[in-house]
Fold:
Amino acid sequence: VGEATQTVEVTATGAELQTLNATVGQTVTGDAIALLPSLSRDAHGLTALQPNTNPDGGVGGATNDQNSFTLDGGSNTDDMDGSHGVYTGTQSGETSGTIPTPAASIEQFTVGVSNQTADVNSAAGASVSMSTKRGQDTVHGQAYDYYLGSYLGANSWSNNRQGITRAKSHRNRFGVALGGQILPNWLGGKTYIFGNYEG
Structure:
């Protein structure tokens, strides 16, 4: 029991209430993108990990072709098929923009799943905004190979029961990314470069 003159002061640090934007969403940095699970290793696949998202990639009751994608401020949304799955054959839940975006090339991934602002007028579902990596003062990069093959997985129960062997298949996504500073005083200032190759 406290005294009548006692005061309790509660302070919070590092948390700021956003009063100008009611969008519900999340921002993920490049380091987290590399560590989060993604079957396709495409940054667009991270949309499926957000709250209010259906397994087929639809968000908030909208179908998966109602999502909007931007890459470095430019539109990356497929005007013919918003999910970009009909023409590219992506797996269920992997809505995608028209330009492939390897996880190794993305610096920041921001997705809004509810109450989008007026600047995202083409998205009844999610609004996905991504920024690519850029060069820094030090050289940085990575080489990667993601392999998913039938040799690494078990056969289904019904196939085992009927004596059917597992069909042979594999998905292999490999690449290299490199960025840094080139020609420090070229054109009167530092020049940076970043590149990503994937196959």
